[in-house]
Specification:
The chain is an alpha/beta fold.
Length: 259
C-alpha cells in the first residue's frame, strides 16, 4: 500500500470510529469473566501507521448486562515493544491479579513500541485502545480512570490533562512532566500521585513540583474538585509502584471516583 493510500485509509478509519464512538458491538467469544484478552488496533504514530497489540483484563465477576469501571494503565520504559504482553508483567496487572477484590474492574493496557519516545507521542494509541475496549466490553463511561508508572506516570499526567473530560481520576506513579503543560488541563480531576524520595531514575521533585503547582492552581480557581493527593515513600528508589498498587487501597479509591 502506497503512503498516500495508508494516510487515506487511516483517515477513513478515524471517521468511522468517530461516527460509531461508544456504540457497543458483539463481543468476541473470548470475552469471558477472568480472561486476559489480546486485541489489535490500527493507529498513526510518529513512525507511521502501526497495527498495535494491546491487552484487556476482564474481571472475574464481569457481567455484560451491567457497566463496569475501567482503568487504563500506561507501562514504563522496560515494557515497551510490540509483543502485546510485556506491559502486563510489571505494575498494575500483577497487583490486580494478586488482589482481585481490590481491582474488580476492566483494565486496558496499551503497549508503547519505542522506549525512547514518550507516551504523549502515542496519545492516539492510548485513546484508540480505550475506545476499542468500550465498543466490546460494557464500560461505565463515568468511571474510567488513568494511571501509569515512570514513563507511564508522565503519560498519565500529560494524557490526563489533554483528555481530562474522559477520566474519573488520575494516579501517576514516579512520573514526571512540565507543570505548565499539565496543571491547567487536569485541575479539577481527582489526582493521587506517588513517588519514592530516594528515586535515582526520576527525582521525587518531579512529583512534588507538579502537585505543588496543581494545588496552587486548585486554590486559585476556587477548588474545583477534591484537593490533589500525594504519597511519598521514605527511602524508596524507583519502584514505588508495588507499594502504590498493592499497599494503599488505590484500587478502592480509583473505583470510587466518578466523573
Amino acid at each position: 500500500m502506497r503512503c498516500l493510500d495508508v494516510a487515506a485509509f487511516l483517515a477513513v478509519c478515524m471517521m468511522m470510529c468517530a461516527g460509531c464512538a461508544h456504540q457497543r458491538i458483539a463481543p468476541g467469544p473470548d470475552v469471558k469473566p477472568g480472561t486476559l484478552l489480546s486485541r489489535t488496533v490500527l493507529v498513526s504514530t510518529p513512525d507511521g501507521p502501526l497495527e498495535s497489540r494491546f491487552a484487556v483484563w476482564v474481571p472475574r465477576g464481569y457481567d455484560e448486562r451491567k457497566e463496569w469501571p475501567c482503568v487504563v494503565f500506561l507501562h514504563g520504559k522496560g515494557e515497551c515493544g510490540t509483543d502485546g504482553t510485556r506491559q502486563t508483567t510489571v505494575g498494575l496487572f500483577p497487583a490486580a491479579k494478586a488482589d482481585e477484590a481490590q481491582w474488580p474492574c476492566v483494565i486496558v493496557m496499551p503497549q508503547k513500541p519505542h522506549p525512547d519516545r514518550q507516551w504523549s507521542e502515542y496519545d492516539e494509541l492510548v485513546m484508540a485502545t480505550l475506545e476499542a475496549t468500550r465498543r466490546e466490553v460494557n464500560v461505565d463511561s463515568g468511571r474510567i480512570s488513568l494511571t501509569g508508572l515512570s514513563q507511564g506516570g508522565h503519560g498519565a499526567w500529560v494524557i490526563g490533562a489533554r483528555h481530562a473530560n474522559h477520566w474519573s481520576c488520575v494516579a501517576p506513579v514516579c512520573g514526571y512532566g512540565d507543570p505548565r503543560e499539565v496543571v491547567e488541563g487536569i485541575v479539577g480531576v481527582p489526582v493521587w500521585a506517588f513517588h519514592g524520595d530516594d528515586d535515582r531514575v526520576v527525582p521525587v521533585t518531579q512529583t512534588t513540583a507538579m502537585v505543588s503547582a496543581l494545588r496552587e492552581t486548585w486554590e486559585r480557581t476556587g477548588r474545583r474538585g477534591p484537593e490533589p493527593r500525594v504519597t511519598i515513600y521514605p527511602g524508596v528508589n524507583h519502584n514505588s509502584w508495588d507499594e502504590a498498587y498493592r499497599e494503599e487501597k488505590l484500587g478502592e479509591w480509583m473505583l470510587s471516583q466518578r466523573r
